[in-house]
Structure formats: structure tokens, C-alpha cells
Amino acid sequence: MLELMIERLRRVKKADAIIVATTVDPSCDPIEELSKRLGVICFRGSEEDVLDRVLQAANRAKADLIVETTADCPLIDPDVVDRVIEDFLMGGADYVANILPATWPNGMDVQVFPSAVLNRVAQLTNDPADREHVSLYIYEHPETFRLRNVESGLSSDVADWRLTVDTLEDFDLVTYIYQALYPKKPAFDLADMAELFRRRPDLLNLNRHIVRKPVR
Fold it and tell me: What is this structure's pTM?
């Protein structure tokens, strides 16, 4: 799944590099090996303090801007990522995302913020939830940070689609989508997935019952 996600992220036009930020736990050795094989930067840091891991990865790469996606989203659409980056580059915001509120499917989440902002957050909070969920403190403090959201413009039911992988049911759906679309069009996008669901609406029932866990 990670290799397929990296393949998709390589089509993002507005990002300069892909960094896999994993943990120092030996169980993550295969992730580092995969990254090396694919020629992708791999940074290994804290398992619990994900904020510090991402910040150190950005600092190691001398990155001014962080475009955060999570590795359980192997269907992420590169055009969606570019759209959120482009919105941030318009200026006037410390943080731009497409989750406030979420009008995109779960699995298309993109968050963009400067490394300097995350460095400031690291100095402001030691709350375990903030350290686990990298940008949580940012969007929970609109009085401190300028926030902006990128909406999909799609029908409201689209936000209920689960295109992420947290459960076996999620995995089954994502597997079917790849089997149906990838052989003919490896660079399939969200529109292609929507067309598949139009023909096979029953597929969405595979994981419709799964409820996204709150971060707090």
C-alpha cells in the first residue's frame, strides 16, 4: 500500500520531495528498505511523539513547507494534494487543509503548513494528543493561527466515503478499487472512483458501518 501511495504522490506537481516519516522501532525496518528501493527519503523518529518526528524530518530535509498526508490513504488523488498546496501558496494563511470541515472522502486528507508553524506548536504544547496528531493544536487554536479550508464542491454524500485503510473492510474496498481501475489506468483519480461507485454503489456498503474515531 505504501508503495502504491508513493507512486501516486510522485504525480503531485507542487511538492519538491516525498519523505516517509516512520519510527525507530525495528518493525519499521521494511519501511526504510522500501523507501531506499524507491529512492524516497526515509526519516525515523519517535513512535509516540509524531509531531516531533514530522518536525525533525522536515528540518533534516530543510523543508520550509510541510504537506502532510498519512500512509493509510493509498487512494489519495494527486490533484487534490496540488489543489490544497496551491491554496496555501495564495498566502494569508498559516494552515490550509481540506478537513475543516471534511467535504472530501476520508482518505483524501491533506494538510499544509510551514515548518516554522509546527516548530512553534512544538514549543507550545506537550499534550499527548497534540503530540500524536501533528496538526491538532493548530486547527484547535484559530485565535492563534490563520486557518483556511479547501472544499470539494461535491455532493454531501461523498464525504461519507471511506477510502482509507484502518480495518479489514477498508482493505477489501481499496483492493477492489485497485483491481477494477489500476490495470487499465494506473493514474486513476477520484472521478474514476466516483464513476466506479456509480456503477457499483454496493461497494460502498463494504465499510459504510465503520466510524471514524475522534482524536480526543
Answer: 0.95
